[in-house]
Design a protein that fits this description.
With 143 residues, the protein is an alpha+beta fold. Helices cover 41% and strands 37% of the residues. The protein has helices at 2-41, 45-48, 70-80, 84-87; strands at 59-62, 65-68, 89-101, 104-114, 120-131, 134-142.
Length: 143
Amino acid sequence: MKFYILLFFLFFHLSTYAQSNYKEDSEAILAVLESQRIAWSNGDIETFMEGYWKNDSLKFYGAGGITYGWKNTLSRYKKGYPTKDHTGKLDFKINAINQINNNAYYVMGEFFLERHVGDANGIFMIIFKKINGIWKIIADTSC
């Protein structure tokens, strides 16, 4: 009987810990996305890119195919969005944040760009990984 009581409390503790981790992790991930939203809306692509893993293994999948690496992704964004008229005002609708493992989540959502050159809307799925204690996007699929 004592074993079952101990097992129950252990399960309850781990369940509570996992829930608090999810809440804390989700809030941190949403903070990264909010920082990116603000930077993009200010036409500051370099600051927007701070949410991404600064590594050659970063992957971005878009309508133009796959882009590998942080520098190449930055160049892709700068080419596709050369002025404030092109970056416009960014908004997100987050549809899901799901844990993959202790240090990784995927986020699915929609983006809305209100721009002088014409609005653009689409969907995305991004993968966040906690690297050196900081949440970074390691893969992005947007279209």
